[in-house]
Amino acid sequence: MSITATNQATYAIDGHVGPILQQTLVDLLDLTLLAKQAHWNLTGPRFLPLHQQLDALADATREHADTIAERAATIGTAPDGRSNTIAATSRLPQLDSGALRDDTVIKRITEILSTTAAGLHQAIEATADDPITQDLLITTGHTIEQQAWLFRSQR
Question: pTM above 0.70?
Answer without folding.
Answer: yes
